[in-house]
Design brief:
With 213 residues, the chain is α+β, with helices and mostly antiparallel strands. 38% of the residues lie in helices and 22% in strands. The chain folds into two domains: 73 residues, AhpD-like (Up-down Bundle), CATH 1.20.1290; 97 residues, Rieske Iron-sulfur Protein, CATH 2.102.10.10. It has six helices and ten strands. α1 packs across α2. The radius of gyration is 18 Å and the shape is globular. The structure holds FE2/S2 (inorganic) cluster. The site of FE2/S2 (inorganic) cluster has 10 residues, from loops. Keywords: 2Fe-2S, Iron, Iron-sulfur, Metal-binding.
Length: 213
Amino acid sequence: VTEEELSGLQWLSRERPEAMQHLLAFFRESAQHLDPKTRFLISVVTKVVNLSERGLRQYIPRAIREGATPDEVLDAILCAYPVAGLTNVIDAVQVLRSLDLDGLETASAATGEPEWVTVARGDGIAPGTASVVEARGRSVALFNVDGTYHATANACLHQGGELGCGALDGSVVTCHRHGWQFDVTTGDCMTRPGEQVQSFPARVEGGEVQILV
Ligand code: FES
């Protein structure tokens, strides 16, 4: 989804809510039986076929964050060859090589049993605001929704913008880069229904904010 298409999607949802709710329900229900990593790898294949550099830059990091390895992404790119042809495959490989994949967190960044980790003082983040914290090597967005803390992965599902730098309105954060929105209490993506950013349980213990990560 390009930025132009995205704003068009949001506009249509407002102008034609009944028609759009069927389309959005289709997105939700058609993705029920595939795990996120597989879905994003399939999206990579479609972006090779269309030779959409923007789409590749969007979906390769998302596949990596869901646990795909660079070799699996390369396999997906090569799978597109019979339809996409060699030129598209080579160009997609160039996009893959240009991405800083080492800087991306994967869904399994923190290994072992989850632990409660102190990330802030209880009064450290004002109600209605967000912040970025580190916990067990992960970058986490921490939100104070009317005095209750919520935590999600910091990287936006779109292109990795920092959700902890976004604007919080009620329980909805708007990514500061291109405006994707997420419910911080569940991680649900409002812009792409059916997709979710990882969320972490949060609590206040002994005057400290802790998250289970
Ligand atoms: S990075 Fe584009 S909306 Fe978040």
